[in-house]
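pls design
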């Protein structure tokens, strides 16, 4: 899950696994798998970075749990 900002500055959390695609129009339009969409202040690059950071964090937690379980 990643935190994004709506055009009215309201923060919300989105499940990045449900994103179908992102358009730049000039703000970022996130289209979900169910075809709902959100207009957000973050750029496409920022959104991709947030997703990458979240996935890395999940992998780190998984790796840490795996190391602890093997002891």
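designed seq:
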């Amino acid at each position: 899950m990643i935190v994004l900002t709506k055009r009215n500055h309201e923060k919300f959390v989105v499940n990045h696994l449900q994103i179908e695609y992102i358009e730049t129009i000039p703000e970022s339009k996130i289209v979900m798998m169910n075809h709902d969409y959100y207009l957000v202040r973050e750029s496409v690059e920022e959104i991709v970075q947030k997703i990458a950071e979240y996935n890395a964090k999940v992998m780190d937690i998984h790796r840490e749990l795996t190391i602890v379980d093997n002891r």
